């Protein structure tokens, strides 16, 4: 862990000085008082400032972002990483060129990287963190693709009166289709099979 020595006329001044140098709030550090201030003789001779040691506590999200940068560098990718704090999650957006290798087929590599990123983040956090990892807005584009697919397949089920079994999808992708067709007239959806080959079935309502 990073440690920093700071001094000031009072303990509070020394801590403020150290926090300013680290660029963090007080909840991100452990403070150890090394030396109390003293006024010295007549308030002049031998006066000593307060000295403190600030130990920077790890931040799960920052550790996760550094992990992503390390992985990208190992893959010879130049990326920018943006952090967006949401109500129930932290979204990390990765942008750059040639990120197809980072996304993988239908986002499989991105999903695996998201899983590892969550492990790294929670290893360095005292509270549960949920990291949503995206690259070049892939997840939004994938959501739009899945919603369009679900509507086409639902229309086909109504037209042919035969159920359709979709390709295997992740739980998150299946959730998108279930939600999209929840209020769709005349069809119902359910999942069948075991992970990682669990599929959605679109069928006529009885």
UniProtKB/TrEMBL annotation:
Pfam families: Jag_N, KH_KhpA-B, R3H. Residues 5-55 are annotated as: Jag_N domain. InterPro entries: Jag_KH (IPR038008), Jag_N_dom_sf (IPR038247), KH_dom-like_a/b (IPR015946), KhpB (IPR039247), KhpB_N (IPR032782), R3H_dom (IPR001374), R3H_dom_sf (IPR036867), R3H_KhpB (IPR034079). The keyword Cell wall biogenesis/degradation applies. It comes from the Bacteria. The keyword Cytoplasm applies. Keywords: Cell shape, Cell wall biogenesis/degradation, Chaperone, Cytoplasm, RNA-binding. Residues 140-206 form the R3H domain. Its main location: cytoplasm. It is found in: Cytoplasm. A probable RNA chaperone. Forms a complex with KhpA which binds to cellular RNA and controls its expression. Plays a role in peptidoglycan (PG) homeostasis and cell length regulation. Belongs to the KhpB RNA-binding protein family. PANTHER family: PROTEIN JAG (PTHR35800), RNA-BINDING PROTEIN KHPB (PTHR35800:SF1). Has an N-terminal Jag-N domain and 2 RNA-binding domains (KH and R3H). Forms a complex with KhpA. This is RNA-binding protein KhpB. It comes from Cohnella cellulosilytica. The gene is jag.
